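Hypothesis: this fold can be encoded by more than one sequence.
Test: take the structure tokens below, design a sequence, compare later.
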């Protein structure tokens, strides 16, 4: 149905009002959260997936390539390094195995929202076809472990270990890493592969530590308490704070298993249909070697646009294009509303579940069982209309004067965003701390290299392109990093460092492509827009498009001597 512009303008007004409500409740922005799990919050960081704490002597040795973090960034880059003959590769990982996000996130219902044939990396190399259109968490973790085995990454890996500092030793042209296990490891090349969203965060809620029941963060699921199949919850009153992508997947199982479930909502997610099916084995059998690489190349080129469409687009002014895009996004969100009305029986609950923000202001979700869960008599939505839970007593959360008496409280409150992809202390040339260097704004080449920090590579940080399929982005970075290291090795260089000019070029490139629209400022707060904080234009993703990012990388590699200093 076609609508007048006034229809869209009115909805945009409502979006703005809903945003205002949230910004006014939390002008402190990202400071509303903490990832400092010391003291009484320590229990939220404990790894529940590993039974054994492996005692070992401190390590003092030197490797060629060292990865901080053992998730997909490390695995897919290591594969490329092995292909180029690099033998000495070490992963240092805080978990007890590889897998990164898929090691930690094992909550019931965990699955990936990106089509598996695109999301799981190295399918050609591993000769593996995923079991379903969308992979479940355990399959992805298994894939990570299989990659680590195939490429012999377990041999030198150290687990249950957190890097605390990384310091450049100018004379030796090596990095020295200290860890919380007393290690002093040296490495020629260091790759910060510690993920974008890896540190769990909690909202700073008054009284959080006074709760007397059981509680945990979704990335530290306590199956000893819930039971593997959640059967232990049948006589338990359970609460979950947060309704982001994690909660959307966890709530259906909890609703089925718990005696009572309270879902504490601050902002609803947009939830579309999930089109999932088991992989068609006939299709899988016909796949030719290199099939995933071909898919990646097709995805990189983006959708094909006909000459006719191109002509039509060219006839629009910039404003018209923007309005057209916005209106289509609003149409999408109204379809999401419509789906809620058709699915959720109680009209007040349905109304509360409607997200009032522009499509993609928050991470879109896809699920077929989340909305129907609210039709269960034991499941209750506690809508805080943007305010959120601000008080927890020994019984549980309190809202609107009502105490919620819970046995179990689950925090689905998300993860700290690694603006720079680093969180240990990194000291480069001339004693320069990377945090200090970034004080006046992030400065990198391609989001990967930074001047003054030779042989350091950052993955998944800002100033890189953003992709809904993160592994596409990571693979592109991994390929690039492996090429750079191979180049340095081939030419017997001990160190590779971007030039000041190359870095400045990229910072300006990032700035030129950011802030073209007011979209970020107009979006409801969330981690996509730093909880509504205004930020420097260079402190975000590169918005020039993935293909452009890919091409820039290639250009940089084609002109290695112009972009880097070697020693
Ligand atoms: P999010 O940061 O997306 O969600 C946190 C939730 O907690 C939000 O709903 C937030 O509300 C809410 N919240 C925070 N503080 C309070 C409070 N005081 N009271 C009530 N609610 C509160 O974290 P997730 O773990 O859900 O997801 C993080 C990201 O991980 C996703 O965006 C996605 O990128 C990835 N992911 C991917 C999955 C997949 O592929 N399927 C699955 C799960 C996660 P508000 O919105 O108002 O801030």
């Amino acid at each position: 149905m076609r609508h007048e512009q006034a229809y869209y303008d009115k909805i945009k007004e409502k979006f703005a009002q809903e945003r205002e409500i949230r910004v006014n409740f939390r002008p402190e922005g990202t400071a509303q959260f903490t990832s400092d799990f010391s003291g009484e919050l320590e229990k939220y960081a404990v790894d529940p997936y590993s039974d054994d704490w492996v005692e070992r002597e401190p390590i003092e040795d030197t490797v060629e390539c060292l990865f901080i973090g053992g998730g997909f960034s490390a695995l897919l880059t290591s594969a490329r390094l092995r292909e180029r003959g690099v033998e000495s590769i070490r992963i240092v990982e805080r978990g007890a195995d590889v897998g990164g996000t898929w090691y930690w996130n094992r909550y019931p219902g965990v699955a990936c929202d990106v089509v598996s044939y695109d999301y799981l990396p190295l399918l050609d190399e591993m000769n593996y076809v995923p079991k379903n259109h969308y992979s479940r968490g355990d399959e992805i973790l298994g894939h990570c472990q299989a990659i680590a085995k195939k490429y012999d990454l377990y041999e030198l890996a150290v687990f249950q270990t957190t890097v605390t500092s990384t310091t450049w030793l100018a004379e030796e042209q090596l990095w020295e890493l200290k860890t919380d296990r007393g290690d002093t490891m040296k490495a020629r090349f260091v790759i910060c592969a510690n993920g974008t969203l890896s540190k769990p965060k909690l909202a700073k809620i008054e009284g959080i530590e006074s709760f007397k029941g059981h509680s945990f963060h979704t990335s530290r699921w306590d199956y000893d308490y819930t039971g593997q199949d959640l059967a232990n919850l049948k006589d338990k009153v359970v609460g979950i704070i947060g309704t982001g992508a994690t909660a959307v997947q966890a709530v259906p199982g909890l609703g089925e298993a718990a005696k009572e479930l309270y879902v504490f909502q601050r902002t609803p997610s947009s939830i579309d249909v999930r089109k999932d099916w088991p992989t068609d084995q006939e299709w899988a059998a016909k796949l030719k070697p290199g099939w995933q690489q071909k898919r990646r190349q097709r995805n990189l080129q983006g959708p094909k646009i006909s000459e006719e469409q191109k002509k039509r687009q060219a006839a629009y002014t910039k404003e018209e294009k923007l309005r057209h895009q916005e209106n289509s996004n609003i149409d999408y969100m109204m379809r999401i509303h419509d789906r809620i009305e058709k699915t959720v029986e109680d009209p007040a609950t349905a109304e509360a579940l409607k997200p009032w923000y522009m499509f993609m202001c928050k991470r879109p979700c896809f699920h077929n069982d989340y909305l129907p869960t609210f039709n269960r008599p034991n499941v209750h939505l506690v809508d805080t209309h943007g305010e959120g839970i601000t008080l927890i007593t020994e019984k549980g959360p309190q809202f609107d004067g009502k105490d919620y008496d819970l046995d179990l409280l689950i925090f689905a409150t998300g993860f700290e965003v690694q603006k720079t992809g680093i969180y240990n202390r990194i000291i480069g040339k001339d004693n320069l701390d990377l945090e200090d260097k970034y004080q006046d704004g992030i400065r990198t080449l391609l989001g990967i290299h930074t001047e003054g920090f030779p042989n350091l590579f950052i993955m998944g940080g800002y100033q890189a392109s953003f992709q809904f399929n993160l592994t596409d982005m990571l693979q592109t970075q991994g390929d690039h990093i492996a090429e750079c290291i191979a180049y340095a090795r081939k030419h017997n260089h001990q160190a590779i460092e971007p030039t000041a000019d190359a870095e400045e070029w990229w910072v300006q490139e990032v700035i030129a492509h950011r802030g073209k629209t007011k979209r970020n400022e107009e979006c409801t707060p969330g981690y996509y827009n730093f909880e509504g904080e205004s930020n420097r234009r260079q402190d975000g993703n590169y918005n020039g498009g993935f293909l452009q990012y890919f091409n820039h990388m290639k250009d940089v590699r084609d002109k290695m001597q112009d972009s880097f200093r070697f020693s």
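The longest strand covers residues 184-192. The chain has a mean pLDDT of 96.
Hypothesis status: open.
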